[in-house]
Amino acid sequence: MTAQTWRRDLAASLVVFLVALPLCVGIAVASGVPAELGLVTGIVGGLVTGLLPGSTLQVSGPAAGLTVLVYEAVHQHGISTLGVLVLAAGLLQILLGALRLGRWFRAITVAVVEGMLAGIGLTIIAGQLYAMADVTAPGSGLGKLAGLPALAAEGFGSAATLTALAVGVGTIAVLAVWPRLPARVRVVPAPLAAVALATAVVAVFDLPVARLEVNGLLAAIRPPGAEDLARLAEIGVIGTVLAFALISSAESLFSAAAVDRMHDGPRTDYDKELMAQGAGNTVCGALGALPMTAVIVRSSANVSAGARTKASRVLHGVWLLLFAALFPAALGIIPLAALSGVLVHTGWKLVPLGRLAPLWREHRGEAIILACTAIAVVALNLFEGVLLGLLLAVLKTAWETSHVSVKVDDEGDGPIRVTLTGNATFLRLPKMLDALEALPRDRHIELDLTGLRHLDHACRIALTNWADRHNARDGEAPPAVAIVGTAT
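The chain above was modelled as a monomer; its predicted structure follows.
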């Protein structure tokens, strides 16, 4: 490594550290766990995953995309079980990578991923609006949305709630305006600037808002015990492990694809990257910390800051460790409303509002899948919402690929020629049979199947039965149906 490359990586690592610090803490709080666990995951993402092969420039840590799933898991199974959930998910990721299945995660339709992120974003926004007001949020996504009018009414009637909301809204305003400021100002990352300004205002005016509670890294680490490991036999726990592994893997590998488009350096090895994410999650699970994924916000900051090698992401983990070890008290002055504001802004960026109108005009089916996935994530949960989205995507693909054309040529004095082209599957049986049964019963019919790329068993049987019925009508000897060609 040259001296110039080292200097660029060092500078980039400091930028990523400043971006990651408020996000690690805020995501942990939003997930219902101690803030320190978010830092632990960020540190492991730098020092463990950052050293492993796979992707060179993407940065790993706690992700807003898993906030909803972690909160539900902690609420349902308890925080003591979090470590074993993440540990098992990490081992599963390593297995998937070893089996060279990493590249297959790219087969997931973009509409499902964007719908998942949109649903997560809406749930984060709804939940963090309560946290911004220092109010306990309802448990379900629909409950959070339904309770927003009451939250607004309560906010206008309470000075303390209004104060906390003002801090949060001010944080969001700084985040929204920051990209429009001069470049020399934007050297400071927006999340850090917003949280620092909010903290300074709260301290100067001694505002009565809740602040972050910090107990130190060692006190927060909870390695899983034998009782926790035994819970892996429970069906509900197994489902959560699968959700952790699959969703974090998909998010990491989609992030890798996006980061590869941002630079001209080495491309990502998806199988190795999946194993690296699994190793990081295994360590996080052993420490009882949050699950990790590759995070596009930190990764894009790393690339934009001029990083050239993986040294930048490793060093960002070093800075997180040093800060958490040497200055834990500094976190205790941060107002929770400011962290909630950062997460509301992050959640808003997960909702692809700008994509919806063009997608509806050009690919209406994809837009429907996106919307249905998002609604299902909010109404049900993350895992079930994604499964529903994938099911809809499969059904849409099956419907589109089963397109079949029925062309009828009748010259009046000869046989009627019926030509089938495309893919004849059971999904299109009603269309084919309606066209065939509308043909005259007293004419010779030539059914041409040479244009079919595929003829499934159900269609083959249905066509044969139709021909038999046509040939044996009333026991007479009407003109026969001649079937020309065949299909697989």
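DSSP finds 22 helices and six strands in the chain.
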